[in-house]
Amino acid sequence: MRQRGVRESVGSIVLGFELIVLFLGTLVAWGLHAAPAGIVIGGGAGLIVLAIVAILTLRYRIGTWIGFAVQILAVVAGVWVHMMFIVGALFLAIWIYAMYSAERAERIRANQPANGTENPQ
């Protein structure tokens, strides 16, 4: 079985939690009649599908960029549901921090010896 990288693991956690928020945000937009029902449900479903595609492609660099697109579109959803400006901005900040930290952790992991004797005493 393939070992997942740090970026893939952390990114899938962030996007997994965001899937719940996107689903609930879609329900809120639908309940508030923020736009016609077809547009709200279609837009929410499209954003959820995009997040799932990002999770499935996180092993490649394009997955990170698709994840960034999900974050930006979540912020843009604030046009219809104003609270999404805040929620989207929070998830964007979490995403940026997670991707930065994962990249740093992968660099550190790549520079350590494979045999586990990095700190002999």
From TrEMBL:
<keyword id="KW-1133">Transmembrane helix</keyword>
<feature type="transmembrane region" description="Helical">
    <location>
        <begin position="12"/>
        <end position="32"/>
    </location>
</feature>
<dbReference type="InterPro" id="IPR025327">
    <property type="entry name" value="DUF4233"/>
</dbReference>
<keyword id="KW-0472">Membrane</keyword>
<protein>
    <recommendedName>
        <fullName>DUF4233 domain-containing protein</fullName>
    </recommendedName>
</protein>
<feature type="transmembrane region" description="Helical">
    <location>
        <begin position="38"/>
        <end position="58"/>
    </location>
</feature>
<keyword id="KW-0812">Transmembrane</keyword>
<dbReference type="Pfam" id="PF14017">
    <property type="entry name" value="DUF4233"/>
</dbReference>
<feature type="transmembrane region" description="Helical">
    <location>
        <begin position="65"/>
        <end position="98"/>
    </location>
</feature>
